[in-house]
Design brief:
The protein is α+β, with helices and mostly antiparallel strands. The protein contains three helices and six strands, in the order αββαββαββ. Strand 5 and strand 6 form a beta hairpin.
Length: 150
């Protein structure tokens, strides 16, 4: 369930993060190949972006959030995500915030369980919520793995 955040005003840094995700997909938009952009802000302040990679075999497509997370680990040695957002670029040029898919929710929560996500609620308002709120009863292995980059 999406939290009721009607009274929450997005901070300027959240608006900037949304704009970074939009800029990423606007600059790389290619119908049927690159239609989702993502941006994440690390707790250190860096913003990292990514665009999704579509494939002829849909199951092997890679989401924009996963690309951004991989870039954060590669470029900054960190997956300490403060906030993440993804946007969808339609064929008519409209860009809207979208929720992370189930696999991205799992991936983000594995690497940064404290992360916040910017999503749209049922009224199309942008809300900010903990990633763990989007993944109730998260699957856990019998072993404890805490990701710590080198």
């Amino acid at each position: 369930m999406i939290p009721n955040n009607e009274n929450v005003v997005l901070e300027e840094q959240d608006v900037s993060l949304i704009e970074a995700a939009k800029a990423a997909i606007i600059s790389r938009y290619k119908p049927d190949w690159h239609v989702v952009g993502a941006a994440l802000r690390l707790r250190s302040g860096e913003i990292v972006t990514g665009v999704h990679l579509e494939a002829n075999v849909g199951r092997i497509a890679v989401c924009a959030e996963a690309i951004a997370l991989g870039r954060a680990v590669t470029e900054y040695g960190s997956a300490d995500i403060d906030t993440i957002v993804a946007v969808y670029h339609s064929r008519d040029g409209e860009i809207n915030i979208v929720s992370p898919c189930g696999m991205c929710r799992e991936l983000i929560s594995d690497y940064a369980p404290q992360a916040m996500a910017l999503i749209q609620d049922e009224k199309h308002n942008c809300v900010k919520c903990p990633i763990m709120d989007l993944l109730p009863a998260k699957y856990q292995r019998n072993i404890t793995i805490n990701y710590k980059p080198k």
